[in-house]
């Protein structure tokens, strides 16, 4: 019996393993279940599922609470988590290293620098924030690439250089916050933890559109990504233009993570952990975008729900919870590597 299935949508088709399809379906259902729970539980107060469904249909007394307050936050967690998972999958695939994540190699810190520049110099509008965040991430990526020339995208040197660039940009961001006016400094400090508190439709409409555009770009590049996973020589033999592909992949990966940073601040470790967790769940040989995106969506939504209830009625920044998740992930990664070396 075939272990693969072919999924078709009009003129497009994709071949995927049965386990990957099953895992993606399970993650999708898990995300929907957590979304319903968030609509019932948001803000520390409980609304029955029946009242939630009625409110979504525009009926009952909870319409404003459910549709205007809770629903944007739930969708933001799902979309932004998927974007972070995709960004992590892109860079881990390019570097062929599980540590090749935007928040490890300085790209998130660069996007945050761009966002701080937009706030302190440009006035901080939604368009300025998005553009400055992407520009900051691109400049950080360029710096890491130039400083690691000679080692290739998969080299350990790139990871080490990225960690160093991340540390320097973090120091620069702290200096910008300290030099800013009090109101900007308070907002920047709170934002640096990564938070979905107070997110509304006005703040997420443009970022959702931007993320959708980068997702479409990644979908168009998915065939080339699968070829490069087999090695550069095989990709070149199949007609893939590696330099152009890598440039577009870097742009899409930075765009996904920088867009999230522009709205919610740097939410760490989702981009690091989601691709590898998705790979382990699906049993794939390498990092694949769909499980990474769905895992990121589930992780961020679960983390945000935990942030809302741990100290209710006070809502923690979701970045506090994702940092704990990331710490546990890194400890597990190190423990697994130690066991393999000892064996």
TrEMBL record:
It is found in: Cell membrane. The keyword Methyltransferase does not apply. SUPFAM superfamilies: ABC transporter involved in vitamin B12 uptake, BtuC (SSF81345). The chain crosses the membrane at residues 21-46, 74-92, 104-123, 129-149, 156-178, 204-224, 245-274, 280-302, 309-335. InterPro entries: ABC_BtuC-like, ABC_transptr_permease_BtuC. It is a multi-pass membrane protein. Keywords: Cell membrane, Membrane, Transmembrane, Transmembrane helix, Transport. Belongs to the binding-protein-dependent transport system permease family. FecCD subfamily. This is Iron chelate uptake ABC transporter family permease subunit. It comes from Nonomuraea rosea.
